[in-house]
Design a protein that fits this description.
- The protein is α/β, with parallel strands linked by helices.
- The protein is built from ten helices and ten strands.
- The strands form two sheets. Strands 2, 3, 4, 6, 7, 8, 9 and 10 form an eight-stranded mixed sheet that branches. It has a two-stranded antiparallel ribbon with strand order 1-5.
- Helix 6 runs antiparallel to helix 10.
- The radius of gyration is 19 Å and the shape is globular.
- It starts with a strand and ends with a strand.
- InterPro entries: Methyltransf_25, SAM-dependent_MTases_sf, Trans_acon_MeTrfase_C.
- One of its GO terms (biological process) is methylation.
- GO terms for molecular function: trans-aconitate 2-methyltransferase activity.
Length: 272
């Protein structure tokens, strides 16, 4: 089982944002389905060691264990809250967790499978880091990544537009906001090298969410957290009410619930 370390000076947007694992898991099944779809494409029955980059509250660990019953699994996340939640809900001697930044991450040895589900987008320079992440993969191993590709959706556009207005803008450092991800062809080029086979695709999910202001509940637990964390009261409450109203108009509630289209990008790099 490879041990894990990272340079202590590394930082990312996820580590600088206070996380609420319970809120993040409100729509756990919807957030986990893309991970299942990603891993289904991996195959690789002989995997013995797995590293999950950005493991969050550990909701993906049962899936990894079910698919690779004998593997040693290491979950890595920069959020202390996420690691604490993951450790408290995991009872498996072959699963361990490390609080560390993905950048500067090093293993004592390499892993048969390195996975990352909706985490790399929190690194503004994640495209530059991808070749280093691929180096964590053993010969014959696989890197499998899923990241959101919905930054042009109303949920994110409304968030960016509202955060750029006063009285909100003066409280928000634009450098702390989540930046749009690239396109699949860009990631394919980033990982291209001799001896590496690349597979890539995208899927647009249509989640049916229940409850009051469900799209706000969804995005406030992830992409909107840097904005919400930066705003003091009573400005924050004013922002929340304006944002909720805009989201209700963009995502009207129907009898079945509120439909949230969500585009996700998938790419897999296999070493020969």
């Amino acid at each position: 089982m490879p041990s894990t370390s990272a340079t202590p000076e590394s930082t990312d947007l996820r580590s600088n944002t206070h996380w609420n694992p319970g809120a993040y898991l409100t729509y756990a099944s919807e957030r986990t389905q893309p991970f299942i779809d990603l891993l289904t494409h991996v195959g690789a029955p002989g995997v013995r060691s797995i590293v999950d980059l950005g493991c969050g509250p550990g909701n993906g660990m049962p899936i990894l264990r079910a698919m690779w019953p004998d593997a040693w699994i290491t979950g890595v996340d920069s959020s202390a809250e996420m690691i604490e939640r993951a450790e408290s809900t995991t009872q498996d001697d072959r699963i361990s967790y490390v609080q560390a930044d993905i950048r500067g991450l090093s293993l004592e040895g390499t892993a048969d499978l390195v996975v990352s589900n909706a985490a790399l987008q929190w690194l503004p320079d994640h495209r530059e880091v991808l070749p280093d992440i691929l180096n964590l993969v053993a010969p014959g191993g696989t890197l499998a990544v899923q990241i959101p590709g919905n930054f042009s959706a109303p949920s994110h556009q409304l968030l960016a537009d509202l955060a750029a207005r006063e009285p909100y803008a003066s409280h928000i450092d634009p450098g702390t906001l989540l930046q749009p991800t690239a396109e699949l062809v860009d990631y394919m080029h980033d990982l291209a090298r001799p001896g590496v086979d690349i597979d890539a695709w995208e899927t647009r999910y249509h989640h049916i969410l229940q409850g009051e202001d469900p799209v706000f509940t969804w995005i406030s637990a992830a992409a909107a957290r840097p904005v919400l964390s930066a705003l003091p009261e009573p400005v924050k409450s004013q922002f929340v009410e304006e944002y909720k109203a805009a989201l209700r108009e963009a995502y009207p509630r129907a009898e079945m619930g509120t439909i949230l289209p969500f585009r996700r990008l998938f790419f897999i790099a296999r070493k020969e």
